[in-house]
Amino acid sequence: MNRISSVLRVASIAIVLGCAAMTLPNSTFAQSQTKQVLKVGYEGYCSVCLVEMKKWVKGKPQHQVTYDNTVYYFPEDAAKQKFLQNPAAYVPALGGDCTVCLAKMGKRVPGSIKFASLHKNRVFLFPEEKQKAMFDAAPDQYANVDLAANGNCVVCSVKMNKQVAGSTEFTAIHNGMRYLFPEDKTRQMFLQSPAEFAKAQVTASSPVALGGYCSVCLVKMQKWVKGTDEHEVEYDGQRYQFPDNGAKEKFAAAPENFVPALGGDCIVCFAKMGKRVPGTIEFTSLNGGRLFLFPSQKEKAMFDANPAEFANADLAENGNCIVCSAKMGKQVPGNAAFTAIHKGLRYQFPSDKERQMFIQSPEEFVGQSSSPKAMKTSQTEPAQTQTAQQTVSIQGKTACAACSYGVTPIGAPNELGLAVIGPSGKIFVIEESHTRWPELYKARFDGKQVEVSGHILKSQGNIVWVQPTELSTL
């Protein structure tokens, strides 16, 4: 599409009207007041001119419309009136966020007018040329990522408990998402109370994190500020809510800096018992700029007494790059500056290149989900069974089998298991390690050098299960 290449770097404007914060004394929660934050659509360029004429024309503040928490400028009243007749036809897809990022990473990343595409008279914005190229190569794969409820009428679902297909002729935009309706009556009902109906298309599998409190406010200001579903981001299986668009965008730009450790599960329970136990916002600690949640005062006190013992229990691969291990068979230390979160675990990479490879397809590198239920089911997948006569003797570093690779011992599927990373990059899951070598099992996160001998029970891809005869530290 045509664009003015020399003048597109117009600073985005955010109008911050205010936000009231509150502290959280013990377990008493109070509702904070929030004010709206507006951004300027298309960085001040006219959306009607762009869609109708394929031209970037600068708008004027005296001709403006506020729609879906965004201010749109127009060069004259005629363009403004055309926008008012049908705003959904002119606003950017996903409110200007990148549809490719939402499809690939599950998070909303603001796009830029420097990287824009026009597809079927809809404007799509991207943060970089990379995402734009991916979209242009297969636009239909990403064009409907912003379509809520699979195009069905959410009003019909809530009011009549029926799945009724919507029509693009009757479209409404809420929080950047497109909602379709079978006729204007249901569309108008939605517009009168969009939050009431928008919740209907949010699945129960995506719970609200931190009780709806803003993680950015907590990490940055050490204050508990209530968020709203008007400003919401879904990340790593949870919905994070914010009091305004500014906090939301700060989270979306780097969610790994604001999500609670281990996805809100208790890091002490994970380190001590090898189990994921949900924490609560009633018992929290902030350490090293990271938020930790605990189920009771007991675990919080244990953490506060010695945070260094527990703080890195959620660090996968002992901080090494899982992509480097899979692609090159090498142990390459990661860098905290390049971190990604998957199933609550932290993965670190030496550069953003490996990080992006992981984000685009984490299951390719991690395997099955690290939740206990998924770990059990992973054992039922087809695998190659070996005879007891096949033996193995290897040296390598210890790691947590479930935490890092999503697999558990055959004989004890409820345990997280001890893994030994061989020199070739193969992963050896050591059976009975939690009972025969309990001290080493507790220290498996430390990457200790060990030597193990035994016979192979099963192999599946890069994973080998071993019944050990000997195991010793080097």
Topology:
Elements: E1 14-16, E2 37-40, H1 47-53, E3 60-67, E4 70-74, H2 77-85, H3 99-105, E5 112-119, E6 122-126, H4 129-137, H5 139-142, H6 154-160, E7 167-174, E8 177-181, H7 184-192, H8 194-198, H9 215-221, E9 228-235, E10 238-242, H10 245-253, H11 267-273, E11 280-287, E12 290-294, H12 297-305, H13 307-310, H14 322-328, E13 335-342, E14 345-349, H15 352-360, H16 362-366, H17 372-378, E15 384-385, E16 391-400, H18 401-405, E17 418-421, E18 427-430, H19 433-436, H20 438-442, E19 449-460, E20 463-473
Parallel strand pairs: 2-4, 18-20
Antiparallel strand pairs: 1-2, 3-4, 5-6, 7-8, 9-10, 11-12, 13-14, 15-19, 16-17, 16-19, 17-18, 19-20
Strand order of the largest sheet: 16-17-18-20-19
CATH class of the domain at 381-473: Mainly Beta
Task: Label the CATH architecture of the domain at 381-473.
Answer: Beta Barrel
Which runs of at least 5 residues are low in confidence (pLDDT < 50)?
A: 1-35, 368-389
| CATH fold type of the domain at 381-473 | OB fold (Dihydrolipoamide Acetyltransferase, E2P)
Instruction: Let me know the CATH homologous superfamily of the domain at 381-473.
Output: Nucleic acid-binding proteins
Task: Write up this protein.
It contains 20 helices and 20 strands. By secondary structure, it is an alpha+beta fold. The N and C termini lie far apart (62 Å). Mean pLDDT is 81; it is low at 1-35 and 368-389. The protein is elongated, with a radius of gyration of 25 Å. The strands form seven sheets. The protein has a five-stranded mixed β-barrel with strand order 16-17-18-20-19. A four-stranded mixed beta sheet has the order 1-2-4-3. Strands 5-6 form a two-stranded antiparallel ribbon. Among the domains are: 209-253, no CATH class; 261-310, no CATH class; 316-366, no CATH class; 381-473, Beta Barrel (OB fold (Dihydrolipoamide Acetyltransferase, E2P)).
